[in-house]
Amino acid sequence: MAGGRRHRAVRVRLAVDHFYPIAGDPEGPCLEGWTALAALAQATTRLRLGTLVTGIHYRHPAVLANMAAAIDVISGGRLELGIGAGWNQQESGAYGVELGTPRERSDRFEEACQVLIGLLAQERTDFSGRYYQLAGARNEPKGPQRPHPPIVIGGSGERRTLRTAARYAQHWNFVGGTPEEFARKRDVLHAHCQDVGRDPAEITLSSHVRLDGTDVAATAGQVAAFAEHGLDLAIVYLRPPLSPAILAPLADALAPLR
Q: Is 102 helix (H, G, I), strand (E, B) or coil?
């Protein structure tokens, strides 16, 4: 409670933040995400697993669909498939992976979503696009989540990314910005949902909130501000070096919002 007003209930997840400040420290350590997910799937029993998010240009979506199905099987149905159109020019260029123009990224991402959903939900998939072609493609065994693991789309592009999220996502992640900016993007997403005949309530809305130092009250205030604009899930980033002692006071500060 704050100021006598009841906040919208919001779920909270914690993430260890290696971003610096958003693009990643190019000199820092970074485990390969999907390999790490496989290890986490074996080492845990309740943890929801996923990347936030995988740039689709790094892997052919048919390969990614097989990886996703395998981790959903290994984890017993705990995968959330986080994907995006890709944006990191520095990393893509260093690896020699073609990123493409913004339009090319959006077109490729739209095709990739269709390929992923087909391979994760259907017995066989045929697809003929500019970027991807499949003929009688199979992906077995599939994981326990039906019709497929929840698809998390990250990004805030109003014309293309949010339209793609309206069509294919079960979860949209707002990438950076203020609660007011989040509210604007939410309205754009909901407008796209109306255009494609989708119920906006089917899509979980999340955003990033950072814990700076030990100011848990400020973090709870940020979460509350987003919740007032319709946020369903706050992803709180904990910057290393991380002391486990911060978790209890953080949980206490966030408890009234749940």
A: helix
